[in-house]
Amino acid sequence: MLFIWALVLAGVLQERELFAAADPTSLLPGSWGSWCHEHDTMHERLDIIEEKVIKTVEHLESEVKSLLSIITETTSDLPIAAGTPLIDIFDDAS
Prior knowledge:
Helices cover 77% and strands 0% of the residues. The protein is rod-shaped. By secondary structure, it is mainly α.
């Protein structure tokens, strides 16, 4: 009878180890919390990068608009001599 109890106890312990191996969170207590913390930290960093990208794009848009307005003002102020043909710079006459 003692032998049977020893086998049952061994079976229960073995079954518990199998379930523990199948559940990695039970093997490393606190690992779930550290994973969540790393995940949250990564999202915070991505949010910071996203804000910087948005600000950079807005800055570049304003610079491009400023340059285009300067180009437009400059080209409209150029004197055109009478009788000279207008040249289309985008026309591909190669």
